[in-house]
UniProtKB/TrEMBL annotation:
This is Carboxysome Shell Carbonic Anhydrase catalytic domain-containing protein. Residues 52-175 form the Carboxysome Shell Carbonic Anhydrase catalytic domain. It comes from the Bacteria.
Length: 352
């Protein structure tokens, strides 16, 4: 991403964002990528679900060299979830049961993230407190076990750290041990199947087989990252608040604050996000000519499903705008609103 985009006029920034979504959809629909997904799923049928932070650095397909569309993401401010939230619990259960009805197992990757080089580059949702983020991830693992069972024969919850300086995964076993992939060497690829078998003694063989490509891909990715001079994007410069679902294209650091529609109290994360935008403007990290409020809801089929998505997207835009207007009236004057639906089969963002 060109760093100049953060300082561009708001209309130019919005067009850049829309182009990013169009490019993502084109890549997703590309015949080569479509066939790669189908071939991959034939060889690795386990459904992979990831619970993760809205931070654009946490891009699992990129960091594991996995085809787009294999990992099913749930993204929220701070990576904070509670499976007791009615909508969150219903969505997760629906995805799990769909896979089970297809005869597939499910791997739920529960992520937390941190920077080994600078604590301040950690997760803002936990005030850059790695230990607090890990505690929360383990609480979600326990909730998954309470719903789907402690035996892990069908649904396996995997707590996974993401070290953002090198995009390295840290795998945590149910026995409390950890495997930091940044400590392994590329020439250890051949020994990974045996290593994973010994590390995840309670993981079904099929799930281990389907986790292996992600681990292998991450090892290769880490090696590539070490050859690069990376801009670690220390400074917050977000200028978009996203509310809803369908923002997979936004794996770009320090652009957007993504609020999933999962919590019964959406006003709290919206207020926090608005505060970050206001601070970014006040400290000169972004222009004060405007910011974008983008709402989105996905749909699978035209007809009632699409019409319902449009209603949800419009509701979320109006709700978020009202919250910002009531709590940050001066900031609200600089708010530009775009409402969209996302056609799930093509990942196409459609402005209303």
């Amino acid at each position: 991403m060109p760093t100049a985009i953060h300082s561009a006029p708001i209309d130019q920034r919005i067009e850049w964002l829309m182009e990013l979504s169009r490019t993502h959809s084109a890549l997703f629909c590309d015949p080569e990528n479509s066939l790669a997904r189908q071939r991959y799923l034939a060889e690795h049928p386990t459904r992979i679900i990831a619970l993760k932070c809205m931070d654009g650095r946490i891009h699992l397909p990129y960091a594991t060299k996995t085809p787009l569309g294999i990992v099913h993401p749930f993204r929220n401010l701070g990576g904070i979830f509670d499976l007791g939230w009615p909508y969150m619990g219903d969505l997760l259960e629906s995805q799990v049961m769909e896979a089970i009805h297809q005869g597939r197992r499910v791997l739920i990757i529960i992520t937390y993230h941190f920077s080994k080089g600078d604590k301040s580059r950690g997760c803002a949702g936990f005030n850059c407190d790695k230990d607090a983020a890990m505690v929360h991830a383990n609480e979600i693992r326990e909730q998954v076990e309470a719903i789907f069972g402690h035996g892990h024969k069908t649904v396996y919850p995997l707590v996974c750290g993401f070290e953002t300086d090198e995009d390295a995964l840290i795998l945590h076993s149910s026995e409390g041990e950890s495997l930091d992939l940044s400590t392994l060497k590329p020439d250890e690829l051949d020994s990974l199947p045996v290593k994973l078998e010994g590390f995840f003694t309670d993981m079904p063989a099929q799930v281990r087989h389907d986790l292996l490509p992600l681990v292998e891909g991450n090892l290769r990715h880490i090696d590539e990252m070490r050859q690069l001079q990376r801009d670690l994007d220390i400074e917050h410069s977000e200028w978009v608040i996203c509310v809803g679902r369908g923002f997979d294209f936004l794996h770009v650091p320090n652009v957007a604050l993504i609020i999933g529609p999962y919590s019964p109290d959406l006003s709290d994360p919206i207020i926090k996000a608005a505060g970050i935008i206001r601070a970014n403007m006040a400290q000169g990290r972004i222009p004060d000519d405007g910011f974008l409020l983008l709402s989105s809801a996905p749909y699978d089929e035209v007809g009632p499903d699409q019409a319902r998505a449009e209603l949800k997207a419009r509701f979320m835009a109006e709700f978020a705008a009202n919250v910002i207007g009531e709590t940050q009236p001066a900031l609200a004057e600089k708010m530009l609103i775009r409402t969209a639906t996302l056609h799930w089969s093509t990942r196409r963002l459609e402005l209303l």
